[in-house]
Amino acid sequence: MLRTDWTLDEVKALYHQPVLELVTQAAAVHQANQSTGEVQVCTLLSVKTGGCPEDCSYCPQAARYHTGVEVHALLKDEVVLDAARRAKDSGSTRFCMGAAWREVRDNRDFDRVLGMVTQVNDMGLEVCCTLGMINEYQAERLKQAGLYAYNHNLDTSAEHYSEIITTRTYDDRLNTLENVRQAGISVCSGGIIGLGETDEDRIAMLHTLATLPAHPESVPVNALVPVAGTPLAEQPRVSVWEMLRMIATARILMPRTMVRLSAGRQEMPVSEQALCFLAGANSIFSGEKLLTTPNPDFDADKQMFATLGLKPRKSFKDMPQGATVLAKASLEA
């Protein structure tokens, strides 16, 4: 039975084990609950870039920072659909669309995103969006359009949150996750390490995720990619050992969840990524960019998969309880 009643002390005890013991335990949990030879391949496209009014200290898309990111309005449908086709042809089974919005507004741009969701879903891809805060009505509209998953990261612990972001609250993030869950959409929520947080902050964030009413179906573990012009530009690179602790602890706490080795992978050799897969990671982003930051391309990941004997996970393999009728129809087609 999946537990959602972990205590903070239990999470601390797991996290602070000797790293090899932690990875060994996580590998056993992974093998008992997942197909260890497969990895979900996702592609993330920025469909609206820059100009965001938020003050997230790590983000090059915040309008208040001078990072050299070129601002562009919502992409044309044909550009997005062409990117989705290329992602599918390259082996991706989940296509994620991100917009640099603080929150979704009920306007023509949102209507256009809904149309994109339907058209990408019709290709047989799992469709994910990350559009900022959404209310119950907007979540329901996304579900009806065929959305499979919605990403809204917690980023860090509730205690450290105000040091990173002041333009929305931690409860705002949790409310969006609840709206997504109530609409029957798969929840994708994780965080970023390397923001100047402590181990206690990392533990608290994992505890929050693992004690939600239901575990997120996907938990991205991101290492900060420092960007010149942001307040966190001088932060040191996160080590593989820190990533292993986060991934392994997440795997033990949330055995059935997809744990994504996400941002920061560009700086990791195949040997370090292999350790993360051993520790329980079973999802990656593939493609040359994660919104605006560098990421390994499809060819490099295909070579890594061949070296490690991994295969891509199929779309819609474990249809969540709230999956949309449109998604099911695409699977059966």
Write a structural description.
With 333 residues, the protein is α/β, with parallel strands linked by helices. The protein contains 11 helices and 12 strands. It has helices at 8-15, 19-33, 77-89, 108-121, 136-145, 170-182, 199-210, 240-253, 270-278, 298-308, 325-332, and strands at residues 38-48, 94-99, 126-130, 149-151, 186-188, 191-193, 218-223, 258-261, 283-285, 289-290, 293-294, 311-312. Strands 1, 2, 3, 4, 5, 6, 7, 8, 9 and 12 form a 10-stranded parallel beta sheet that branches. The chain has a two-stranded antiparallel sheet with strand order 10-11. Helix 5 links the parallel strand 3 (126-130) and strand 4 (149-151). Helix 1 packs across helix 7 (199-210), helix 2 (19-33) packs across helix 8 (240-253) and helix 7 (199-210) packs parallel to helix 8 (240-253). The protein is globular.
Cα-atom Rg, whole angstroms? 18 Å
Count the helices. How many? 11
**What is the terminal-to-terminal distance?**
33 Å
Q: Which residues sit in consecutive blocks of at least 5 with pLDDT less than 50?
A: 320-333
Number of strands: 12
The helix content is: 25-40%
Largest sheet entry: 10 strands, parallel
